[in-house]
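In line with agreed milestones, work has continued on tokenised descriptions of protein folds. One protein thus recorded appears below exactly as we store it:

>
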Amino acid sequence: MAFRSEEMCLTQLFLQVEAAYCCVAELGELGLVQFRDLNMNVNSFQRKFVNEVRRCESLERILRFLENEMENETVIIKSEKYPETPLPREMIDLETVLEKLEAELQEANQNQQTLKQNFLELTELKHLLKKTQDFFETETSLPDDFFSEDTSGLLELRSTPAAAAAKLGFTAGVIKRERMVPFERLLWRACRGNVYLRYTEMDTPLEDPVTREEVKKNVFIIFYQGEQLRQKIKKICEGFRATVYPCPESATERREMVDGVNTRIEDLNTVITQTESHRQRLLHEAAVNLWTWGIKVKKIKAIYHILNLCNIDVTQQCVIAEIWFPVVDTGRIKRALKQGMERSGSTIAPILTAVQTKMSPPTFNRTNKFTAGFQNIVDAYGVGNYREMNPAPYTIITFPFLFAVMFGDCGHGAVMLGFALWMVTNEKALLAQKSTNEIWNTFFSGRYLILLMGIFSIYTGFIYNDCFSKSLNIFGSSWHIRPMFSNSTWNEHVLEENEALQLDPAVPGVYSGNPYPFGIDPIWNIAKNKLTFLNSYKMKMSVVMGITQMVFGVILSLFNHIYFRRTINIVLQFIPEIIFILCLFGYLLFMIIFKWCYYNVHVSQYAPSILIHFINMFLFNYNDPTNSPLYTHQKEVQSFLVIFALIAIPWMLLIKPFILRANHLKAQRMLQLPPISEGPAGDTEVEITQPNNSKKAGRENHSSGHGGHDDHEEENYLKSSGPW
């Protein structure tokens, strides 16, 4: 990882049409090239290779369909290596295979759905016949005088001539269980109570053939008299989506129908099993190559997308592209183009021509598996301008260390370190799994970051003497209790009267004078003022490190100004910035360190408050009797620093904008001057034109912000961390 972004160059690339596909494929495998869009004014649907892109999208749709079918049924096999980019003619074979597979799978799904629908209907009919038979058998066991003359004949339980003339009809069917109550209520109201309804729950739940969800249903039978009631019942059943099945009136016919239904169900089970086996066989065959197919289709689509960014000359024989790439990788780019030419069978070598431009090149920071995580953190806040100082190398140390300052527990740091070491030592096996879990991938991509955070957390944990919120007494405390009794400061009466006792370091022997060798003395873990002391210590230490880091960042900007020869930025930006931060926050840092060094145990009770001093510094209040000065002539020093910091504010914010505005207006006036032609007397001709006044000048914008990022919006990338 370099301290500045890579030096980039803009080059025109001339390719033979037949070799363009393979050359772009090789550049894509290299992952070091960014193509500019030379067809910005052309609609996306009017570009040369839009049909090929649509074909790739159609293949992606088929692959998504196959992946959805395999979900929770078949494991997709992923290869350890990425497949090579297929040639254009291989795309036709891939289309044929995928379309045939899609058609076969859709046909199998349709057949399976139809068979399951038939199976569902036969199962419902089987339960309906069984429940109906049970109902009639129950009615047969009633006493002889239970039925009147009419009803006994209608239910076929009695055989009298009068009953035959007034025979009731009945309708049997199946309805979803949750619809049974409103169904019954509507029947009663619509038929005015002139129907007799019996229903019962089906013992086994059924499976919906479309949604594959469990469905619970009820079997019902409705007795009625008259055609009008039959029509009403039929419409109500249709409204509630109840399925009505034909049910014979005689028991013998019902038993015969049950036997026939059972036979058909057995046959359907056999056919459904065979259909499912055929479907699973198709899915297993597709699962072997699905991941490979997906990578190939993505590569093909990316290549044609890049080719749509290029120009094709009027002879339709040459593809013209403009590419950005690192200067140090020129040799690798040429070798990749040569390999693409050889693979395509072309005999005409690609031509690279350097292009002089005033466009801001893209920012490219080379990374590896260790530095990639830190670079991503920096890029998350914004990509730097071209050739600016890259803060990522410094972030490798500062980010995990500042995290550890907040975390500060050697026990939990050891757990984090162990987890990171496991990921680092098994990274090849974990990479081979190609997990799609977003949370896991986030942790794994930052494994080296977590490793350093764990190491620094152990270090700061020992500094804080904190291990799972417990202190470690490794070297022995520097504080002793016995001198407090020897000096008669403590006695039995003091012990009985006070709940908390205070060690006085001014008493000889109480404090040995030698600090704890590493970190906080363990005696502070049992002190009543533990939080007060540790919070003050950690806050001041954080302020010192925070101000140091801010000053370091401002100094880094000086190197950028010197590199780009921006004298105005040094005078009107860096100098007032460093003055402001040192006069205020640098002085705060000085007061913290001065107070630590100057006030010892004998005069610590007279130590003033730094916070009050810092507030009074801005208020110019130096008559506070409760807060004594830190040093002599403090008033003069602080007044000078505040005035100097206030002067730096307009110096930093007002002067530079006016200078930039004046330069802008001057440039505008120069562009508006008319050209001066050379006359017969030998006058000089001056023609004012815009820089890069060519046919592509309209698409060349000076970028600002993060590393030519505005220009990136009109360009497309062909680069990756690995093969595509």
